Amino acid sequence: MQASHSKKKILIVDDHALLREGLKFLISQSKEDFEVIGETPSAVETLKLVKRLRPDIVILDLSLSDGSGLDIIEPIKKISQSTKILVLSMYQDESVIVQALKEGASGFIPKSEVSEECIQALKIISNSDDLYVPASYSRVVLKGLLSDDGSKTLSSREDQVLRLLALGYSAKEIAQTLQISPKTVQTYRQRITTKLDLRRRSDIVRYAISKGLLKEEEIKGIVLPKDDELI
């Protein structure tokens, strides 16, 4: 299906077919210059579709059939920097909203308010660089975006990588375990060290223990080398 040049192309990413159908109907009835050019429930498929279709906007659920939408915000922006991302979620945790916006999303809507907020959000983010969140979230989200502590929040995927680093896994082993590329592992590792300023494996281990990322039996099995290598 080809979209006309005057219309903004939209890709819908959600693991519920009923919601995808509802969004398509809502957009088609809006009389705005939007056109849905694709849909998928999959994080992996999303990246392929973004590369092939180059949508103007991705409507992205955070809970997908094969992973977290939060983990693909940055990869989407790397593939197509001009693509805007409107995040949907049934979870309304402010820290997750802030993290999504810091990763590169242009807006957030709770699923409970999609019918009231979606078209307005699409209009705002498609025509400007402004961020969009419902009025009831604006104060707490702004506070989170301006807070230094927010920059130290790890995504769920970064937590997974950090945990495996603490256990002594190599980049290749982490890639095999999480089914991602070694290059992606390196990207996550750099982001972790930048966010948390942790440079040595002993620092990683202490942080993982403090956050409850390691089981008791795993902690007992950790052996640090004498030179405590840089990660």
UniProtKB/TrEMBL annotation:
The modification 4-aspartylphosphate is found at residue 61. Residues 9-126 form the Response regulatory domain. Residues 147-212 form the HTH luxR-type domain. Keywords: DNA-binding, Phosphoprotein, Transcription, Transcription regulation. Pfam families: GerE, Response_reg. PROSITE patterns: HTH_LUXR_1 (PS00622), HTH_LUXR_2 (PS50043), RESPONSE_REGULATORY (PS50110). The keyword Transport does not apply. InterPro entries: CheY-like_superfamily (IPR011006), NreC/VraR/RcsB-like_REC (IPR058245), Sig_transdc_resp-reg_C-effctor (IPR016032), Sig_transdc_resp-reg_receiver (IPR001789), Tscrpt_reg_LuxR_C (IPR000792), WalR-like (IPR039420). SUPFAM superfamilies: C-terminal effector domain of the bipartite response regulators, CheY-like. One of its GO terms (biological process) is phosphorelay signal transduction system. GO terms for molecular function: DNA binding. This is Two component transcriptional regulator, LuxR family. It comes from Thermodesulfobium acidiphilum.
